[in-house]
Amino acid sequence: MRALLVLGSCKGFQRESFSGLKNNILVLIKKFTQAEEPVFILKETEDQNNYLKDIEFGNYVLYRKDIDAFFLSGLEKKLRIMGIREIVLCGEELDRSILFTAISGYDRGFRVLVVKDAVSSENYEKYGMDQECVNNTIFKMLTDGDINTVNTEEILNGYNEVSIENC
């Protein structure tokens, strides 16, 4: 069984440049919900309700204490109790919370997928970094460490294959 984890500061979700990211995240949440697989919204603080109100229909909302979503959040315990073996990561802050949570999840024995077209960071604009270069570097680091990177379409096709097999 797998779970979807939506991470980030969530401020970027309201920005026009993140509309594609937000749409992909919404599609993923819908597919996981339809498949009756858990969706975790992992916020940094409780004051972010306004940023996530239209995508906060996941099963669980947890508050992170650190850039690693596993650190002092109760996430690992919930995942273990539910029998989750695979986590799918999307959201904001690829260069921070998604990177660290992916590594931490892998270290805890979970199979980890990072959805490449459902992640971003506001740090690109803030620090004048080349988004494609940074993303490719992070994705290369992750895949070198046995963490898989996929596109939203690949996740959706996986669900289509499962539904066909079960008919």
Please trace the helix and strand order, writing H or E for each element.
Answer: EHEHEHEHEHHEH
Ends apart, CA distance between termini? 19 Å
Low-confidence runs = 48-55, 161-167
**Strand order, biggest sheet?**
3-2-1-4-5-6
Proportion in helices: 40-55%
Shape: globular
Number of extended strands? 6
Estimate what percentage of residues fall within beta strands: 15-25%
Q: Number of helix segments?
A: 7
Global structural class: alpha/beta
The overall average pLDDT, rounded, is: 77
Sheet having the most strands: 6 strands, parallel
Q: What Rg do the Cα atoms give?
A: 15 Å
Gist of the model:
The protein is α/β, with parallel strands linked by helices and 167 residues long.
What does this structure look like?
With 167 residues, the protein is an alpha/beta fold. It is 45% helix and 21% strand. The chain contains seven helices and six strands. It has helices spanning 19-34, 49-52, 75-82, 94-107, 123-127, 131-144, 152-165, and strands at 2-7, 39-43, 60-63, 86-92, 111-120, 148-150. Strands 3-2-1-4-5-6 form a six-stranded parallel beta sheet, with helices on both faces. Strand 1 (2-7), helix 1 and strand 2 form a beta-alpha-beta unit. Helix 1 (19-34) runs parallel beside helix 7 and helix 4 (94-107) runs parallel beside helix 6 (131-144). The longest helix has 16 residues, at 19-34. It is globular. The model is unreliable at 48-55 and 161-167 (pLDDT under 50).
